[in-house]
Amino acid sequence: MAPTELQSTQVDLAGLMTVLGGHLYSTPAVAVRELVQNAHDSITRRRLEDDGFTGGRIDVTSDPASGTLTVRDDGAGMTREEIDRFLATVGVGYTRGLRERSDELIGQFGLGFLSAFIVGERTVVRTASYQAPDSAYEYTSTTGERYSVEPCAPREVGTEVELTLGADHRELADRAVLAGVVGRYCALLGLPVFVNGEQVNADAPPWRAASEDVVVHPIQARKQALAFAERMDPSFRPLCTLEVDGGGVRGLLWIQDVLTYGSWDNRRLAVYVRGMLLDDDARDLLPRWAGFVSGAVESDVLTPTASREDLQRDDAWEAARTALHEALVAGLAKVAAEQPEAWARVLTRHNEGLLGAALADEQLEALLADQLKVPTSEGDMTVRELVDGGDGRAHVGLGTGGFEEMRFRALKRPIATGTRYAVVPFVRQWCGARGIDVVELGTSSGDRALFERVQLEEAAWLAEQLTRERQELVPARFEPAEMPFVLVPDREAELKARLEADEARERIASAALHLAREHTATIDGTYDARLYVNVDSPVIAALLEAHRAGQDVEVALDLVRAVLALMAAGERETRAEVDLLGALSGVGEAVRRLL
Ligand SMILES: Nc1ncnc2c1ncn2[C@@H]1O[C@H](COP(=O)(O)OP(=O)(O)OP(=O)(O)O)[C@@H](O)[C@H]1O
To answer: What residue range is the signal peptide (predicted)?
Structure first.
């Protein structure tokens, strides 16, 4: 058989450019980042190869009138041959080979320069290499597919890339826009970067300042860290900052100074690799419960994808994620110990989110167990206070007020508001760890703890007189004795329905939801409500005695029914069924007949 002739694959560069422009990068501003990064790498190269070189500066300038943007460096420059071999060959770069000698280099794919053609309709590169400083060349191309190289007037060693921006990208020449873009991408770059003459990365991040030999007072250091966080995060002011140093990652996290609720998820994490912003929404590196945390970190071990806008999910990524989690927990503990004022604000701002966090993380639960508050009928309090006020038990309401609250108000006992985010599982977890009973109002087990059921011969008769359809009458004894009855809607069935609705809300902390749902799986729902009748109450006792003695109790019963209806009118669930005017006129009618 004749040997198969191997053919070369053809690359349609124009097609490739469309893919790159439309799909690889999320924003055309990335082109600016790629050019600055090349300038940076070129300076790094010159530092390695050109003994005695002491410079290193990147200048980005723009002319809004002509729509041009220029990136200039005093790096290694390129020889005539290097222009062809590296700049003009897609997928090849000098930088990749050099990476073995320095871990400061950013480029590796040999693709970044192509992004110039996404935003520029004409690209001119003027360069003089330190290897042949007397020869300068000018490279010109419109689409990147064809280019020309000519000798040009002598110039300083280094490279200048001048883009004439396409009509769609002219905005990049706007001075403020450009300063914003470059400032964001280069905030942590180790070399000075100037935009139209102004340095955009003058302030080193606090963790780098800290490693130099200058001793900074802790209060000063804290201020610097807060100022840095404020510069980095235009959306939320920082409340306090937490250091990150481990797992190949260094940087700062900060707690957002806003009032958040449980399902708030505003995790924000900017990741810089070798000083360049790579991903400004790397939220997955932060734990899910950290919805109120922002941060900026840098790492030399995380691996960018080719678009350099995302990170590869490799071992380094996992290690970074673990390190961030640990830094967050340790940092919160440190703030609690060292900055009481800031800590108090963290607790009030993010109480709900932290309830969810404590459920998801054992270490946090240990730190927060006695600091977080749960909402109760008597105001916000810790679970310990709830238990102290509840005679050694924690009472949790699953509804909103009504009969049970009336009863507990009469007893001056707090009931935690179980309908609020994470309250039920948090109280359960807290009490479970300490062997304390949780009484959930409206659940069958809760009711058993609250109402002492008794046998009553007249139960069926009373039920006939007082209950409606799907209501169960339960004779019982309970405090306070003055209260004749308590109508308890089936809270479990309600909770079940609500949790099912919550499931649709994706961002609710799954730990809290899971714990609560485990509990509701066992609920049936034969009755909508139970009417607990207090045999100790003078009203019921008198009614029963008269009935037993064969007296006419009709008027008294009318009055009792009217009172029951009035109490039910205060209950959200039963309110609709109550004929309020009927109940009031029932009272009037009974009184008239008694007089
Ligand atoms: N400003 C510059 N000064 C000197 N050489 C440069 C400059 N810009 C680009 N080059 C050369 O062109 C090569 C290709 O650049 P390009 O941006 O396409 O890829 P890269 O930087 O090597 O890798 P990546 O795609 O990861 O950015 C570089 O490796 C370098 O040799």
So the answer is: none
CA distance 67 to 122: 11
Establish whether residue 117 lines the binding site of ligand 1, counting it when its CB lies within 6 angstroms of any ligand atom: no
- Do 86 and 114 sit in the same domain of this protein? yes
* Helices within 187-314 (DSSP H only): 206-211, 218-232
Looking from the CA of residue 71, the nearest atom of ligand 1 is: 1
Q: Minimum mean pLDDT among 21-25, 202-206, 247-251, 425-429: which range?
A: 21-25
CATH number, residue 285: 3.30.230.80
For the chain, give me the number of helices (H) and strands (E)? Answer: 22, 20
Does 44 map to a domain? yes
Residue 498, judged by CB atoms within 10 A of its CB (0-12, 13-18, 19+), counts as middle
Ligand 1 centre and the CA of 85: distance in Å? 11
Full domain range(s) for residue 122: 5-199
- Does the beta carbon of 76 lie inside 6 Å of ligand 1? yes
Spatial distance between the Cα atoms of 497 and 359, rounded to a whole number of angstroms: 22
By alpha-carbon position, which residue is closest to atom 7 of ligand 1?
Answer: 38
- Tell me the average pLDDT across 315-327: 95
Say how many Å lie between the CA of residue 375 and the centre of ligand 1: 59
**Which ligand 1 atom minimizes the distance to the CA of 96?**
22
Predicted confidence (pLDDT) at residue 83 exceeds the cutoff of 70: yes
* 85 within ligand 1 shell (Cβ under 6 A): no
CB within 8 A of 441, min separation 6: which ones? 395, 396, 397, 398, 399, 404, 415, 447, 450, 488, 491
Q: Could you tell me which residue, 347 or 517, shows the higher pLDDT?
A: 347
* pLDDT at residue 507, as a whole number: 47
- Say if residues 122 and 140 touch (Cβ distance below 8 Å): yes
Q: Who wins on pLDDT, 463 or 469?
A: 463
Q: Based on the fold, state whether residues 170 and 210 are members of the same structural domain.
A: no
The stretches of 201-339 forming alpha helices (DSSP H) are 206-211, 218-232, 315-338
Residue 94 Cβ contacting ligand 1 at under 6 Å:
yes
Q: Give the distance, in angstroms, between the CA of residue 393 and the centroid of all CA atoms in the same chain.
A: 34
pTM: 0.76
> What distance in Å separates the CA atoms of residue 173 and residue 286, rounded to the nearest whole number?
35
What ipTM was reported for this prediction?
Answer: 0.98
Please give the mean pLDDT across all residues of the chain.
87
Distance CA 290, CA 266 (A): 8
Q: Are residues 551 and 505 in the same domain?
A: yes
Residue 238 near residue 257 (C-beta atoms within 8 A): yes
CATH number at residue 100: 3.30.565.10
Same domain, yes or no: 240 and 290:
yes
Tokens of 262: 């449980």
What is the layout of strands, in order, in the sheet containing 452-453? 452-453, 471-477, 529-534, 485-489
β-strand partners of 127: 137, 159
